Amino acid sequence: MPDPASAPPRAYWRRIPALMANELRPEEFLWLLSPLRHQPLLTARRATMIVNRTRFIALLFAALTPLWSIVDYIVFPSTLWASLAVLRLLACLAFIALVRLYRPDGSLPDAYRALGVLFLIPTAFYLASHQVLTAFNLSGLSAAIAAGYAFLPFVLLAGLAIFPLSLAENLILASPVLISQGLAGALNWTTLDWPSFVGAFWLLALLTGVSALAGMSQLAFMVALVRQAVRDPLTGAFSRRSGEELLHLQFSQSLRNGTPLALAFIDLDHFKSINDRFGHEAGDQALMQAAQAITRSLRSGDILVRWGGEEFLLIMPNTDIHQADIALARLRQSGLGTRPDGDDMTASIGVAERLRENAHDPRDLIEVADRRMYLAKKRGRNLVIADG
Length: 388
Fold this sequence. Notes:
The chain is of the alpha+beta class and 388 residues long.
């Protein structure tokens, strides 16, 4: 039996995903390390959660920060209290501004900015208060209260644990706090208590690791929950509710960047007859076959949504009408599977594109594609119609 201590580091690394076997698929494990491959819906919902929690913590700090001035007033000299009160007032105003100015909109860059500001305010307050406090020779109770200011970086790093963040995001956010701690030590190099400083820095690094693990654990649960919530259990395509959310995200991005966005409304032909003649189980098998066939032909970035019954919506970002025609021709050529009687499954497809239709709302684009899909049915089915 091999000695576990002799196992190479790579072997331990491969065992880490097994710790979350009931939460994540193997390919999703990398999502815990970096947000670069996150799906749009996960990104939007995570951004919303980050901003909401950021605003809640900012509101809490806005209320508690000025209240501590009462303690400062009791134990510190009046000049020191006045200096700290000004810093607390500025920090309180900054926290209030953060609460009022930021609203969750599903944008991850906005969430990063809100989170960055949340950590910047107390970090700046810590550095400024540290300089003010070191100018006074305090003793007794005053010195004990002043020492409490040194715990602010610990509170900040511990607070990271409530956010669903990847490892890279945790390390980036923790870095300014660790750097500020090192800077505070550098400013008092000649009088620094080195054993105490090294011990505090080691504890901060340990808190960073614990917070990173907690944030990654939250992210793992969120990945699993979003995956379960957004997928249609029968076909594996996105559900209608999540599809609507994705369409709004893609439409907003298309408007912002001036890029094309194509939709294809796909309705399987004569599907009701499958249920009537062969039963609903056969109908479910035909739906799964069709969804799998469409999924195999999707390009990178395309999104398949089960809109309802035998209807699918294919969202094609950065795709003009000509490119959409080519993609759908390839789909029809590869086929949509077979019906229970052995005939080929066919579909009537209506296509719309945002720039060409001059659509200002996702519902307008859906209505155009839907109307053209019904036109394809009227003209004999098994057709793609992109105008009319």
